[in-house]
Amino acid sequence: MAIQTAGEQKYYDFIEERARSLRTGMIIWISLLAAALIAVFNSPVIGAALAAAGVLLAVLNVRNQRALRAKLSGIGDRADFFNQLIAPDTVEVPAFRLLVAREYVLSFRNDVFIYRLDDMDKVEVGLGRGGEKALFLTDRSGERHEIARSGGKDDPEFDRAYSAVRERLAPAGR
Q1: Which residues contact 166 (CB under 8 A, 6 or more apart)?
Q2: Above 80 in pLDDT, residue 45?
Q3: 136 near 147, Cβ under 8 Å?
């Protein structure tokens, strides 16, 4: 997909780590298939084993690439979504890999998660042992989605993330 707007660039910069790992995975499975092609002439058994591993990795990699592209499928108006990402009121909290836009919260932990604020009921802070704090968005069905986690008691970045999400949920009376 060609990047055409600053908002798209912002989104792809946000998911860069995940996209890079998928590209690396693609290089690995292509290399395995190439090695299998070469090895099959010397040892058919080794060639077959390399080919099987390459095909398995290819299937997993393609599935993960599709899943990453599908993250945007729930977005109704993509142009508006990308414009929100570059809007001056969008809050970015790099410490937690979090973007808080007018209608969306983007969180990157092990994967990219896009939460529509209209689907959320409230924002909560969970406290753990040793002063650990977690920031959750709770949807209307009561399911909690962790969007940030802090190890320390006094973390201004955590407070900034909480304030930004709370501000965005407040206008709709949530």
Answers
A1: 123
A2: yes
A3: yes
Q: Are 81 and 75 in contact (CB under 8 A)?
A: yes
**CA–CA distance, 94 with 16 (Å, rounded to integer):** 13
Q: Rounded to whole angstroms, how far apart are CA atoms 99 and 150?
A: 16
Select from 111, 76, 106 the least CA-distant residue to 168.
106
Decide which of 3.40.30.10, 3.40.50.11810, 2.30.29.30, 3.90.800.10 is the CATH code for 90-172.
Answer: 2.30.29.30
Rounded to the nearest 10 degrees, the angle between the axes of helix 16-42 and helix 6-14 is 60
Tens digit of each residue's pLDDT (9 = 90 or more) over 64-121: 999 988 888 888 888 899 999 999 999 999 989 999 999 999 999 888 999 999 989 9
Per the prediction, the chain carries an average pLDDT of: 89
CA atoms within 13 A on the CB side of 34: 6
Residue spans of the domains in the chain: they are 6-73, 90-172
The pLDDT of residue 129 is 78
Q: What is the pTM of this model?
A: 0.80
